[in-house]
């Protein structure tokens, strides 16, 4: 104790002056003590479950009510320290008042004595000492209890030999050697003991059976599904613009596009709502992760938005976001890895553990970059939830490249394939491969008044070149000189200070134009010219929609991954016969002319014919806002890749054949009296099956008959019955993994069935085989949907 003497006032005053730093000192001691407690109990605290408070201790490790009582007492002590520090703060304030009063002395009894203040300081110090003692006691008690529990359960913590869990023992061995390789294991409670291994492998992962002595109510309690809410069409997109965020030039471009098209989206929603009538649409919770815009993937697009870089991907993503939002679904949008991890519930660590919670999203739309990021950070949850993923894939992924084992064995493996997804989960910009789903984008739709104004304001001799980067113009001097004899040529090539040397002087270059100004240029022009690159972009459709004729080059030989650097490494064997195959096949003349640019006579003849031709603005229905809404609605409503597989194993025979031979004996049809496959989409009655000519792909064989190949119908045809009904003479039938099966080999009169459902493919051909091809009809202007698909 300190004896009070006449100098007590001086001591009190000194204490008050030094009170602020002392307060920080005491606060530091208190915080350090708490941190020491947490880190000392390391394993126990790291063993918390998702949803627990950060300071919740697992009672099974700590030892029940006694330990919890000690912790409560320690918490009370810390709270008392805080209250006393507040008292000291008030003392500090009173000292400042004392100094401010000057000669006006306050009564001495209003100030605490020096002895009382020192007693409080000593009490706080003693409290800190008590905390240290309690921590030591808890640690000793915890270690003793843990050793007893381990001895009591040692016989219950051996890897069981359960035939239902054949991988359990191997996974335990792996955990023994590698559990420290990723901090996520400690996050889920793994501490190096056999019990912690088995608890993790049975409750967090699913390789081992549940331990009988564990409390199963917590682990079996599944999150209750949220009540289903009906989706309602939206016409106001202001909230979507907020969800899209800002800070990147790419996002700014996408938001401007969405805002500009708001009125068209609203009108399209109104029309589709009338078409669907009272169809119930459940609202889906959807995560949209645009992987190519993340910093981790390099985000090469954002810096090039203002420099003439490719905008096709951003056009498509902007329209996907708008379609999902207008359809009334719940959206979460991420463009960074950190946001992705937070929304998925990724545990801390290196991505080897499952998610900390059930996936809160019904669907995830992403791209190949995002797909890779999810696989790296979702652990086993990626395999569990990958059926919910939709991959926006510009050029498509064919089944032969998608199946990892098959691609590796047969030379189809690339940097972008081998994901073992259902091929329909890949969604393309154009409907060039029916094996994938056609997502598309939209072009601005003109009303009748706008169409008349455009048609009357066209300049008959004005041409605009498709190519914003100067490199596209390189080597095109001869072509441009021929065109210049007939037309005034305009360009929109990006440049900073000096005119690009690749652009001839007779070309009127406007520089890079904002989208509205570019649209105005197209509305005046007669001709829109492609130089062979970029492939399959949105600009030609925009030009045709604004009343231009699109002139493009025919490729001979066709471009593919075998002979062209651009396609090398892409997961497709598709041969591209022109710059824009969709425009050539699905639109054609008079709106689209495809000629050999190396033949001057053919080129000049085409230019003269185009100048004499009058065309109206034209936009395919599937590229209108209503067409895209219709398509995306149908996908969300009917596509379910998480459901169990349909028809049985290859070769399985039904009690009664569902097929009948068409009257002209050329193809199979679904019998009217046959029971429809439950849940099949497209509906099975739209099936038409043809035996393609040797060397012909099913994609082309169906188009030959005015139909579309439908890969979801392959399982119905993958049987001996289908060949017999079609009167194909099979001397033998075998099942193998081959992306061309089911097929008939003519030399040996042998029929082959498909062994691997993921390899059913409309693409691919061989002169050795006549492929059995499933075809269907389609809605006018909407090749993605059959007549009864909506």
Automatic annotation (TrEMBL):
It is a single-pass type II membrane protein. It is found in: Golgi apparatus membrane. GO terms for biological process: protein N-linked glycosylation. Pathway: Protein modification; protein glycosylation. Residues 184-775 form the Glycosyltransferase family 18 catalytic domain. GO terms for molecular function: alpha-1,6-mannosylglycoprotein 6-beta-N-acetylglucosaminyltransferase activity. Its EC number is 2.4.1.155. GO terms for cellular component: Golgi membrane. Its main location: Golgi. InterPro entries: GT18_cat, MGAT5_Glycosyltransferase. It catalyses: N(4)-{beta-D-GlcNAc-(1->2)-[beta-D-GlcNAc-(1->4)]-alpha-D-Man-(1->3)-[beta-D-GlcNAc-(1->2)-alpha-D-Man-(1->6)]-beta-D-Man-(1->4)-beta-D-GlcNAc-(1->4)-beta-D-GlcNAc}-L-asparaginyl-[protein] + UDP-N-acetyl-alpha-D-glucosamine = N(4)-{beta-D-GlcNAc-(1->2)-[beta-D-GlcNAc-(1->4)]-alpha-D-Man-(1->3)-[beta-D-GlcNAc-(1->2)-[beta-D-GlcNAc-(1->6)]-alpha-D-Man-(1->6)]-beta-D-Man-(1->4)-beta-D-GlcNAc-(1->4)-beta-D-GlcNAc}-L-asparaginyl-[protein] + UDP + H(+). The chain crosses the membrane at residues 21-41. It comes from the Eukaryota. Keywords: Glycoprotein, Glycosyltransferase, Golgi apparatus, Membrane, Signal-anchor, Transferase, Transmembrane, Transmembrane helix. Belongs to the glycosyltransferase 18 family. This is alpha-1,6-mannosyl-glycoprotein 6-beta-N-acetylglucosaminyltransferase. It comes from Balaenoptera acutorostrata.
